[in-house]
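Milestone 3.1: sequence recovery, worked example.
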């Protein structure tokens, strides 16, 4: 994470709700990274429903984590959407689709 990247986190089967998002992403990754970055930290997510739950909002507030504000339903303004677009195009261009998580 402090080397500017993390391993891809893959959720086990089931839906990702606010509780899972807090327990599997915010607690182990975001909290740690925020602690390492101190005042330079500004958290960016998107408007996915699990990101906007009361549990997620309360967690970020309790950890004093500032969230970058994004307009609702504006993927063109969110830089991560460009990354997803690039990834989708790269996957579509492959002769054979990835079969394992490691290949993906």
């Amino acid at each position: 994470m402090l080397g500017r990247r993390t391993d891809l986190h893959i959720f086990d089967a089931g839906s990702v709700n606010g509780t899972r998002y807090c327990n599997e992403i915010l607690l182990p990754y975001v909290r740690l990274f925020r602690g390492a970055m101190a005042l330079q930290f500004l958290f960016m997510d998107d408007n996915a429903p699990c990101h906007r739950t009361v549990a997620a909002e309360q967690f970020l507030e309790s950890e004093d984590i500032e969230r970058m504000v994004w307009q609702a339903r504006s993927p063109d303004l969110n830089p991560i959407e460009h990354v997803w677009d690039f990834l989708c195009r790269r996957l579509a261009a492959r002769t054979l689709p990835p079969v394992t998580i490691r290949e993906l």
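The two ends are 20 Å apart (CA to CA). The CA atoms of residues 84 and 90 lie 10 Å apart.
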